Amino acid sequence: MASDGRRRISLGDFRHEALSETSSTNSECLARARAGDGGNLWVTAERQTGGRGRRGRLWVSERGNLYASLLLIDPAPMERLSSLPLAIAVAVHQAIRRVLPLGAEPLEVKWPNDILVGRKKTCGILVEGEGLPDGRYALIVGIGINISVMPDNPLYPVTCLRQQGSAASPEELFAHLFAATAEVLEIWDEGRGISEITALWRAIACGIGEKITVNLPDRSISGQFAGIDDNGLLMLDTGAGRIMPIAAGDVFFG
């Protein structure tokens, strides 16, 4: 514990297990948690046979990309967990930045944690949690990054790092992700560092001030993207001075 009360996190706090193939790295981490794993475990796979994205969508997972999940056990009090996806997005952005050439298109984060290159999606992040029978809480952060393969997606444009001039391998990119995540989780500080994280997130955010449409489970709402509040909620200006906070939804520009 440091003198400022913050628990120092180092690379040595994390373990990594590399698999050739699995159904889902998130599912693998959850199984480890149910079996008593203490957390701070990265699981990567060259290929997933049952990868999934948000809302149960299929995540195409062929060889050549990075598929990684991080298992955390009791990472923060429940009331401070909502900012973790923002922190992870900052870490992934930093890792991808380190393997992109200087001439690549702009690298940005779309709320809450999609990573875009030139307004095209190259990474998705899925955060899942489960209370364990022994009272602990398992939180799994799944990260899929298009390096050399990208799925067809009719909902929005996609790209991969190869198209952007990066020659990085999945192993090289994961090494950067491993380091960046440890750095950012130390800043996040079990949710106490949310103001620092939101400042970092805003600096790399895509589309603040632009017109967006947010698809919710039951409806779609349009307005101006007014940024995020200090808890990471999307602030949607729907007109007439009304700002609507949104906790979850799919964002489309224009």
UniProtKB/TrEMBL annotation:
Catalytic reaction equation(s)? biotin + L-lysyl-[protein] + ATP = N(6)-biotinyl-L-lysyl-[protein] + AMP + diphosphate + H(+)
* Recorded superkingdom: Bacteria
* GO MF annotations, alphabetized: biotin--[biotin carboxyl-carrier protein] ligase activity
* Keyword field contains Metal-binding: no
Q: What is its EC number?
A: 6.3.4.15
List the InterPro entries.
Answer: aa-tRNA-synth_II/BPL/LPL, Biotin_CoA_COase_ligase, BPL_C, BPL_LPL_catalytic, Transcriptional_repressor_C
**BPL/LPL catalytic domain location:** 12-189
How is this protein named in the record? Answer: biotin--[biotin carboxyl-carrier protein] ligase
For whether the record's keyword set contains Zinc, the answer is no
Return the broad EC class.
ligase
NCBIfam families named in the record: birA_ligase
Q: Name the keywords, alphabetized.
A: ATP-binding, Biotin, Ligase, Nucleotide-binding
Q: A Pfam family name for this chain?
A: BPL_C
